[in-house]
Amino acid sequence: MAKTVNLIKLSVGSENVEDMIEWQSNKRAQAPDGLPRHVTRMWPKRGDEIINGGSIYWVVKGVIQCRQRVERLDEYFGTDGIRRCAIVLNPDLIRTQGSLKRPFQGWRYLATADAPPDLPKGRENEDVLPIELNRALAEIGVL
Q1: pLDDT tier at 134 (50, 70, 90 boundaries)?
Q2: 73: CB partners within 8 A, 6+ apart
Q3: 97 contacts 124 by C-beta, under 8 angstroms
């Protein structure tokens, strides 16, 4: 049975999920077919597991707030001629339960068991809990 693994990435410069949606609507952030993409220097060694149903979980302002399904990994060459990986994403951002995450560089693998659950239907537009409250709830095991 094929395994699935996710990625986790900081959304640098985003104040909220709406900022991400706006950025991804920009042609510079899209693959030639119009799907949003994130270009990274490092090519994931576990690419087959990522495209087997994996998502990229986005950390916005220190909190995992949403995810996008990874559609494929494309080879991309910048103007400098260096080979990079374009992580091509499904355009739908799925809101997740807020989960605190410390800053890190680049992307990391995220096991499916460690990924925060999606928010139930009807709760997608709720505000994210304040960081202090989120941290307190996590410390007592509620989140």
Answers
A1: low
A2: 43, 44, 47, 50, 51, 85, 86, 87, 88
A3: no
